[in-house]
Amino acid sequence: MKILGIETSCDETGVAIYDSEQGIIGDALYSQVELHAEYGGVVPELASRDHVRKTIPLVKEVLKQANCTKDDIDAIAYTKGPGLIGALFVGVGVGRSLAYAWGIPAIGVHHMEGHLLAPMLEDDKPDFPFVALLVSGGHTLLVDVQELGQYQILGESIDDAAGEAFDKTAKIMGLGYPGGPALAKLAEKGRAGIYKLPRPMTDRPGLDFSFSGLKTAVANLYNGSDKSEQSMADIAYAFQEAVVDTIFIKCRRALEQTGHKRLVVAGGVSANVALRAKLTDLLESKGGKAYYPRPKFCTDNGAMIAYAGYCRHQAILNGQDQFEEPAVRAK
Ligand code: KG4
Ligand code: ZN
Q: What is the required cofactor set for this protein (predicted)?
């Protein structure tokens, strides 16, 4: 079975084909980073227009990569949300129209389920059950995953998401857009112990997060600093350390609460090297294991949507779920 996946929820147009026998056989991504860089963040209207330009060419490209024609595709999965509404409309419109024209099912996929399942595309994939930490630009979630589709949210951010905190802090420090990777890179040159920032909400019980206070704390540090390269790196280090420590404490708590020995980490911030190192150590110390997608599948991509669409399609075939729209059925 071959599923074409389309992702257009934010500023990346991602298209891929997942084959149930061979895995990902076509994968193309177009990033709009340059388009939005001069505005210091994603401009939704520009994002939608660019998805319109790029989605169909990428569909053609992945069909070519996979050596397929439209007749080889069994279903189309598209991101149905959450995301920028105009951007989502492009993927939904293209996905459902192609499915209608090709006479195959269209499957709407939840963007965060796409992220959650992305580590399943690796050779070393996690078995169920596990705790999932989803850390992206829009969400910070701890989820108890019992089975495919059985998700219980254990905790989430009550304000900024982890990636959003990276991006906003980077903006305060003049690091441009996208800020997360730039701030992480600067932190590599920072020294431990120079600045100390709070670990928000770790001194009270529960698994919710709050990151908005950290950016204010960084703004104060930054405004009072000499803004030299070393001071900037030290501030970046302190910020990253505070985010990573906070996430570490909450993950440890979630693992203790659920008794699970596996932690799946996904979403854009799961590309962060310091976070990976700390969580990998945590799981090793507990005799368990942490699982991550390869770096290019941490951030938004079509492959995770194609794979999640395949899983949804299987659930539908097994009678555990149903197609959203009655009009489009199998060939
Ligand atoms: O999952 P994603 O591509 O989009 C959303 O669904 O939001 O995540 C993007 C987020 C951005 O906030 C970006 O700054 C952050 O992931 N990010 C990072 C790193 N790479 C991407 N944050 C920290 N360190 C990184 N290496
Ligand atoms: Zn995402």
A: Fe(2+)
Ligand 1 centroid distance, CA of 178 (Å): 8
Neighbours of ion ligand 2 (CB under 5 A): 136, 300
For the stretch 195-204, contacts whose Cβ atoms lie closer than 8 Å and that sit 24 or more positions apart, written own/partner, are: 195/221, 195/234, 195/235, 195/237, 195/238, 196/238, 197/221, 197/238, 197/239, 197/241, 197/242, 198/242, 199/242, 199/245, 199/246, 199/249, 200/246, 201/246, 202/245, 202/246, 202/249, 202/250
Whole-model pTM? 0.95
C-beta of residue 282 within 8 angstroms of C-beta of residue 251: yes
Tens of pLDDT, residues 181-232: 999 999 999 999 999 999 999 999 999 999 999 999 999 999 999 999 999 9
